[in-house]
């Protein structure tokens, strides 16, 4: 997977000049430009199961597969990956390195000040990757705090805020590039847990002989359970593209096709949602 990411990273860098430029007039004209080019470039962060390059060098994941279906309906035949670190997705989108963020990005008020989101295509609780047997009995952030557990999570992950809300100082968290590095940190004993989305934790820990995932739980933010939803992100000028994308997303949701697309990536019906971007932006 890492070799595939490197190869596609080089491809993405070489092709950046082909990214369609956008106009803020009347909601932007990016959709028309993408139809003319026949390809949309997707910003991904190499995170299983949201958007990644598989062992055969093929772009896949929950968000890219959904993008293939929706953009095909919008008249754009091909999707092309531009891999980057999660923390670089919004800067990369704003600087037109790619056209859309397709990485399962959580919709948060802070991010809503920088980009516009489609409505969420999933909702997700948290879970931990811990050593086999979960020797410290870590099931929530409160458990981790009481046990003085050393916590790792990923760059730009919402779990940073969740841990801070529970009482951790951000400087005390170990921030790693991705979920593979998080698993390695747990397996090597550098940290006591890696915090991630429930589906990420399940899939990444599944083949490990030294680690396992905990049961999903809902984190507390401002003392209340926080429902997180992931969605595609667009430049603020491109409301026409976002609205057209949303219209097709809602059709897929109503027909049940949305669930059929994401189910192979470990999503269950419990992760389907009717949340809106407006609700999550606050």
UniProtKB/TrEMBL annotation:
Residues in Solute-binding protein family 3/N-terminal domain copies: 39-269
Q: Which domain of life is it from?
A: Bacteria
Extract the SUPFAM superfamilies matched here: Periplasmic binding protein-like II
Identify the keywords attached in UniProt to this record, alphabetized.
Signal
In Pfam terms, one family for this protein is SBP_bac_3
Instruction: Reply yes or no: does the keyword Iron apply.
Output: no
Listed InterPro entries: Ectoine_EhuB, Solute-binding_3/MltF_N
| Xref: PANTHER family | ARGININE-BINDING EXTRACELLULAR PROTEIN ARTP (PTHR35936:SF17), MEMBRANE-BOUND LYTIC MUREIN TRANSGLYCOSYLASE F (PTHR35936)
Quote the protein name from its UniProt record.
Ectoine/hydroxyectoine ABC transporter substrate-binding protein EhuB
Highest classification ranks of the organism: Bacteria, Bacillati, Actinomycetota, Actinomycetes, Kitasatosporales
């Amino acid at each position: 997977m890492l070799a595939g990411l490197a190869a596609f990273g080089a491809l993405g860098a070489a092709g950046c000049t082909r990214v369609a430029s956008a106009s803020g007039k009347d909601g932007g004209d990016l959709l028309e430009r993408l139809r003319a080019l026949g390809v949309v470039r997707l910003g991904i962060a190499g995170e299983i199961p949201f958007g990644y390059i598989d062992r055969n060098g093929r772009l896949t994941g929950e968000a890219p597969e959904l993008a293939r279906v929706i953009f095909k309906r919008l008249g754009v035949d091909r999707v092309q990956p531009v891999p980057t670190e999660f923390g670089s997705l919004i800067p990369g989108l704003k600087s037109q390195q790619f056209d859309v963020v397709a990485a399962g990005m959580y919709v948060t008020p802070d991010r809503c000040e920088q980009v516009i989101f489609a409505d969420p295509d999933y909702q997700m609780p948290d879970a931990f990757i811990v050593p086999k047997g979960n020797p410290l009995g870590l099931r929530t952030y409160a458990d981790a705090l009481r046990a003085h557990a050393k916590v790792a999570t990923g760059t730009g992950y919402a779990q940073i805020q969740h841990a801070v809300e529970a009482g951790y100082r951000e400087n005390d968290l170990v921030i790693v590039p991705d979920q593979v590095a998080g698993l390695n940190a747990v397996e090597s004993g550098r940290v006591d847990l890696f915090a991630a989305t429930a589906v990420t934790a399940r899939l990444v820990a599944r083949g490990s002989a030294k680690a396992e995932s905990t049961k999903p739980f809902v984190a507390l933010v401002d003392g209340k359970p926080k429902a997180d939803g992931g969605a595609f992100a667009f430049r603020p000028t491109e409301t026409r593209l976002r609205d057209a994308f949303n219209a097709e997303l809602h059709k897929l949701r109503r027909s049940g096709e949305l669930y059929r697309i994401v189910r192979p990536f470990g999503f269950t019906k419990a992760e389907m949602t009717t949340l809106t971007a407006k609700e999550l932006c606050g």
